[in-house]
Each structure stands twice: as C-alpha cells, then as structure tokens.
Give the backbone structure.
Amino acid sequence: MDMDITVLEIMDNKVRLVLNGEGHTFANAIVNELLNDPEVDVAKYTMEFQFSEPELLVTTKGSKKPIDAVREATDRIVKNCDDLLQSIEKA
C-alpha cells in the first residue's frame, strides 16, 4: 500500500512533505528514524491543528538528498516491523 503524500517543496538539501492521512504516530516514528541518519541535519514535523495532516521537514548535510533520507528511513521502519512480526510468529 502506498502512502499518500503531497510535496510542498523539494530542493537539493531540503524537502517539505504533507503526510496525508497520517497522525502523530507515524510522524514521530519517521522523524526519530531520520534523526538516526548522520547525514540528516533537521527532521521535524508540525501539525497546524489537532486534526490536520502532519507536515514533515527534512534537511540534509553533504550530498545526500533529503528525499533519499526519507525513503531509507521508511525502509528501515518497514524492516523493523517485519523483524518484530517474525519474532512474534516464532514465539
């Protein structure tokens, strides 16, 4: 299943995305995972209103493109979830 996002701004070292249909749970998870990447300078999200969509801001240092950092972070989240499910199945 693909996530519905809206790209607000994309530059060489900065991206702003709206995570349509998501809330604090996924926004917190992606920000925390992004901050594990040493090439990520800033990763944060804002929600203007209680029920609005989270807006994600990511900036990078060096040559890594922020959209690549977002893709890699989501891949790591998926892998962690898959590993957890496999552990549960084995138990």
About this structure: The domain at 5-90 is CATH 3.30.1360.10 (Gyrase A; domain 2). The radius of gyration is 14 Å. Residues 47 and 54 are 5 Å apart (CA to CA). The helical segments are 24-34, 66-90.
